[in-house]
Amino acid sequence: MTEQEWLNSTDPVRMLQALRGNVRERKLGLFALACCQELVGNALDPQTRDALAFVEYLAETEGLRSRKAITRIPPGQVVIDCGASEPVPVVRLGNFEDRNIDLACLPPVLSEVLRRLGCGGAAVWWLEPMTLEFAQNGLISPRQADILRDVVRGSSRPVVLRAPWLRWNDGVLQRLAEAIYRDRAFNQLPFLHDALLDAGCDDDELLGHCRQPGDHVRGCWLIDLLLDKKQGSNDRSP
């Protein structure tokens, strides 16, 4: 897929296929999380809130310790069993404040993402059919493509943050990025745009992403770049 095809695509399956072998699990997991968040909206019950929080945890840790965190609970005991042949009715968030989630109470797509991330990590091969599930549940393919473009920078050209930009005003760019990331304050990206300009940034791609219409999500490639969170083999350290 060419850079222009990536920018214009409304087909998340084709975009995911183009990423095979070139993107970290974290990015794929955060894409799945953002899709689930859009599907369930803001009126969340406690179980759904816990499930979304745990999906984020699993994505951010790239499945680290997940096989110890997601457990099957037969009567009277706790057994780690990600390979169960029967559906797992309950997951215990053993590394996440020891809370339980009844998967039957969750939207099916969220339940499936939680299962997949917990037992195998994020993978293109299961996300491709999940995009069809997302679409059938109301998240249209063009919006999924927009989310994926926000999370993953599609260009094969290296992108570099210049050292003088990062040093400007005692590292204010990284501090702004950290605050946006921590607080999910993506409405603050216009301020980041202005700070980049003031720091001397003349990169149209970086500046343009700050002005990109629509909602940004956790994993936004520009914020990740400023925080040195790698997306794949095309990243270059400042």
List keywords for this structure.
238 residues; two-stranded antiparallel sheet; globular
- Assembly state (oligomeric): single chain
What is the helix/strand order? HHHHHEEHHHHHHHH
Total E-strand runs: 2
Termini gap: 27 Å
Helix content: 40-55%
User: Biggest β-sheet: count, sense, barrel?
Assistant: 2 strands, antiparallel
Supply Rg: 19 Å
Structural class: mainly alpha
Question: Strand share of the residues?
Answer: under 5%
Number of helices: 13
**Strand order of the main beta sheet, please?**
1-2
Number of domains: 2
Segments where pLDDT lies below 50 for 5+ residues?
73-80, 233-238
- Mean pLDDT across every amino acid position: 84
How does this structure look, described?
This protein has helices at residues 3-8, 12-18, 25-40, 46-60, 66-69, 108-120, 124-136, 141-151, 163-167, 172-183, 189-198, 204-210, 221-226; strands at 90-93, 99-102. By secondary structure, the protein is mainly alpha-helical. It is globular. The model is unreliable at 73-80 and 233-238 (pLDDT under 50). Helix 2 packs antiparallel against helix 7 (124-136), helix 3 (25-40) crosses helix 8 (141-151) and helix 11 packs antiparallel against helix 12 (204-210).
Short description, anyone?
By secondary structure, the chain is mainly alpha-helical. The protein has helices at 3-8, 12-18, 25-40, 46-60, 66-69, 108-120, 124-136, 141-151, 163-167, 172-183, 189-198, 204-210, 221-226; strands spanning 90-93, 99-102.
